[in-house]
Design a protein that fits this description.
Blueprint: H1 2-7, H2 12-40, H3 44-66, H4 68-88, H5 93-98, H6 109-129, H7 133-154, E1 158-161, E2 169-172, H8 173-195, H9 201-217, H10 223-239
Antiparallel strand pairs: 1-2
Helix pairs in contact: 2-3, 2-4, 3-4, 3-7, 6-10, 7-8, 7-10, 8-9, 9-10
Length: 241
């Protein structure tokens, strides 16, 4: 893992070239999500996943097109934007795009935990599974992203999930079913991008099903880690990605 980090540390030239673009993009994504909440009345369960979806799909596109170093630059600039939003705090349009009201009084904690889980997931998936990390990006970015909005809108059958800091967290069976369906589509797309073919459907369905189970069982705030690492590992084992 240390070797991976050393080998993929961006050069100053790469930071200077890609950094302003990544910074503008990450800021625009979070500002869009915040605007949807403030100006359109969208719930935080929707707006934080808008940001989540845009960041993960951009990460997948950057790594596929330009490699891990380009992704590292984007990850750094996104970190700066998130840190700025957290410093601005309650009431700021950027902060409110990510901070769930249901996570009070630990709203900042549940911005920080998914952020670090995302970073850790990307590093672990790339370190151990190489190109199969793209499966993790797309499953987390698409499959995981759909669960909370569907649960917020249509969830009628809820179940409690592990959490910390005294915050009570729930998911729904409706949301978990949506995670499975969209994860299957994400795995299919990743297979085409990484392997150039869909291959057998049974492994794809197995990866999507396990991903949905992992999302259902992951502690509140930590599914950005598990939803990257598990699909990447399964893709490497079952598909040879």
């Amino acid at each position: 893992m240390i070797r991976f980090l050393v080998d993929n540390t961006p050069s100053l030239r790469e930071i200077a070239t890609l950094g302003p673009f990544g910074l503008a993009l990450a800021f625009a994504y979070l500002r869009l999500a915040g605007g949807l909440k403030r100006d359109r009345g969208w719930r935080t369960g929707y707006t934080r996943k808008v940001f989540h979806f845009l960041v993960f799909t951009t990460a997948a596109a950057l790594q596929a097109a330009l490699g891990v170093r380009a992704l590292a630059v984007f990850g750094g600039t996104t970190s700066l934007v998130i840190a700025y939003a957290v410093l601005r705090g309650d009431g700021d349009v950027l902060y409110e795009a990510m901070a769930r009201e249901s996570d009070a009084p630990h709203r900042t904690w549940f911005i920080a935990v998914p952020y670090f889980a995302t970073l850790a997931g990307g590093v672990v998936a790339n370190s151990f599974f190489g190109g199969a990390a793209l499966f993790g990006y797309l499953v987390a970015g698409l499959g995981d992203a759909i669960g909370e909005p569907v649960g917020t809108r249509f969830g009628r059958h809820r179940y409690r999930v592990p959490s910390v800091a005294g915050v009570v967290a729930y998911r729904s069976w409706e949301g978990s079913l949506a995670v499975f369906a969209v994860s299957l589509a994400a795995v299919a797309v990743a297979s085409l991008l990484v392997l150039g073919t869909l291959g057998a459907w049974l492994p794809l369905v197995a990866i999507a099903l396990v991903a949905a189970l992992v999302e259902a069982l992951s502690p509140h705030g930590w599914d950005n880690l598990t939803m990257q690492v598990v699909p990447a590992g399964l893709a490497a084992a079952l598909l040879g990605a």
